[in-house]
Amino acid sequence: MATSDDYRDVPTSTLSRLAQRLGKVYASTSTWYRLMRQYNWRRPRKRVHPPKPKIGIRAASPNELWHIDATLIRLLDGSKIYLHAD
Length: 86
Fold this sequence. Notes:
The chain is an alpha+beta fold. The protein is 24% helix and 14% strand. It has a domain at 5-38.
């Protein structure tokens, strides 16, 4: 469970409590850290997210694609305004 790809995004301390809850291992968090150091277990550190696309959106002619950005601004009196920019 400590070196599984299924739990690579779960911290070791949380993983120890999860294993206890699932009934797989009954050991404290400090025991997990000690055993990981002792046996040189390494957690997988692979990228979880897919790679970013190399080429973005391309327009074939002018004014074919438009983009509008909306930002919420909170004022001091508690009201909100929206700023739209294109």
